[in-house]
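cron nightly-structures :: item 1 of 1
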Amino acid sequence: MPVTQITRWRKLNVWSPQLTPVTGSWPMIAFADFATEVHPDPHRPAPSEHVKLAGVRWYGRGLFVREERLGSEIKGRCYPLQPGMLVYNRLFAWKSAFAVVTPEFCGVHVSNEFPQFQLDELTVDAGFIQVLCASEPFAAMAAGKSTGTTAVSRNRLRQIDLMSLTIPLPPLNEQRVMLRAYQIKIDRADALSRRATRIRSAAWMAFEEVLGATSSPVAVSRAVSISRFASMSRWDDARVDSGPALRWPVVSLGDYADIRLGCQVPRRGTHGPGVSRPYLRAANVQRGRFDLSDVKNMRVTERIATALTIRHDDLLFVEGNSQEEVGRAAVWNRQGEYIFQNSLIRARTNRSMLDPWFTCAWFNCEAGRRYFQTSATTTTGTLWHIGAGKTANAPVPLPPISIQRKLAKDLWSALDDAADNEQQAHALRTHASAELANSVFGQAAPGPA
């Protein structure tokens, strides 16, 4: 069976460039043979008109409404999406930003970076083409044809270059057979994702119900809270919202935990005395988990390294982020001598009184994180801060330690179950995409029955 190998031009100077096999089982067809660009008339909105603008998600994940603007705010031309058309983002074709326009996007608009194409229904199935354009082999072909000054953000695939791409194209009936097999796996994956969502929602709801959490703000069990007026603009002023008490007493986190802000990263080129340590920053702390895929090092003194070394069961909060994400927290349960930057705050709880896993759950649940969302301050409108002082004053319910541990165990066990379902769903989607791509690009077609 003849096989064509495809790679990017700039990779030809390496010993073993990554190659994409294209099987000789199916005829090679140019995109121009089954796709014709359409040119809808530009929409000229009235100044007071609300215009929805769409984008195309990477990796074949479909269209989405990315923003809504007044007509007076739109400077360039915009074009209406037409249902049934294939649309792609010229800047991110190499990221598989292709989609078929579905009926719910009628009346939504795009810029001229999103050309649209009519597909020949007698030659191709639109759903099949969308899945094929999301495959890794096709992404490699699109990347090879894309040009621009910046490979990451200005790497455009022009319409003329898309039209010149040739792909192995099975007959229409074979396309539909492959698409059905693909869709069966995707449906199973979607069912697993829905199950994961139900498990997560039920687990968080049960956690909050036991505590008696409501939609109202939570208050520390104190009669009076006093702060100097001049300090109210500070990131770390002590402000406690009024509201109903929970089922158990509510205390300040700082009464049962040592609160510490991390250190600033030394200026670039600083080579002072001390030790080099890997450090965590805001990007490494997700809600209830850590992402250590990108960890940097900094040089600090022995004294600072000792003071900021993260211990097992330390609770880390994100000090600055969007208003939605500020204060998200995770409990450290990894190995290694890590320290933390000043974009994080550490809470080392008195574990005989306040369980760190329970505390983490509380500040990640809707009722608990509301304190950070309402107490955080900003000078930019996009980056919100809580500071160590506000973190120390954060209200947390204090059930008996045995109840804390049971609540935490039940919640995190359910969340682990949900994560397992999501992992299975991801594996199914990956397998479905690879199987279809291999059937087209990398394997011989099955013989007659």
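cron nightly-structures :: done
Residues 14-21, 221-244, 444-449 have pLDDT under 50 and may be disordered.
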